Amino acid sequence: MSKVYFKRVENKDIQALSDAALMLLKTLVAEDGHSFTGTVPLKVHFGEKGNNTYVPSACYDGVIGYLKEQGVDSAFIETNVLYRGARTTAESHLEIAKEHGFTQLPVIIADGEMGEAFDEIEINKEFFKTCKIGKAFGDYDQFVVMSHFKGHGAAGFGGAMKQLAMGFAARGGKMAQHAGINPVVKEPKCIACGLCFKKCDVNAIEMREKAYIHQDKCVGCAGCIAVCPVGAIVSDWSGKNFKEKIAEYAYAAQKDKDNVYISYLINVTPECDCMGQNMHTVAEDIGVFVSKDPVAIDTACIDILQKESDETLFDDGRASIVHAVKIGLGSDQYELIEL
Description:
There is one protein chain. The chain is built from 10 helices and 16 strands. It has helices at residues 14-32, 61-69, 90-99, 160-168, 171-179, 195-199, 223-227, 242-254, 294-308, 318-327, and strands at residues 2-8, 42-43, 76-78, 107-109, 118-122, 130-134, 144-148, 150-152, 156-158, 183-185, 205-207, 211-213, 233-235, 260-265, 287-291, 334-338. Strand 5 (118-122) and strand 6 form a beta hairpin. Helix 4 (160-168) packs across helix 8. The two termini are 19 Å apart. The relative contact order is 0.20.
């Protein structure tokens, strides 16, 4: 049975949220004997441009200060997104990070300028044999995975597992989870500029009257999506078993890592922080959770959220928990320790 430490914070007090994360982290270190060595990046989500319900950067100050006191170097680490937006390329991603106040630490975009840099991590599970994980994650043995627990239209909810799965995946890995493997061309929008043709490293794109993608050659890196100036190359979002695929990518992301997971059950919106818009909340703020087990911390978050708000809220997301337990990612049995 995994331990999940919990501190209630209900009033949107940023300092209280930072202090709670620090208190819980210190407790985990003391009780479980966890230690940090080398450089330990913080995996975060900067929030899409226009979104105002992501976890504010100041909520991480207590953890950042603690690592500094321990003589541990750190950085914020993220990957580029699959869709077209303010976080599609490393250059624009760094700009939005600064705009949203993530200036306490250096920022690492783990999958390169356009999501092209990744390592293939072998897992040999039901849906994936290997997973495309942002290359820079291979440089570190430990991470503090900072997650915002909220809803998600396709996943049911987004928490620690989704922060691992989508957050650690390079653009091609995100595509593999969402849609199978390959992008498609919307011919009416294509202006035949040839940028996608020049970008493709595996000669999967042919310039006819419009761009044409040879699906048998495409490796799903999604670099063509990033460079298309008119958004004519898109993902097919109709992929099956998305929730189970999240669990398997989360498994790949944490494989051989010694992580700590910190989740903020605040600003509970129906959609994720990738939505570039203001969203209404669907539940009251509850607090901060810390664990060594990403499955246990997600299970604790949804259990308490449903108990205190709506017993059906985000319930379809439990499919990812079931598959995560099945493949050995973690446990859905936990001891909740409230401080």
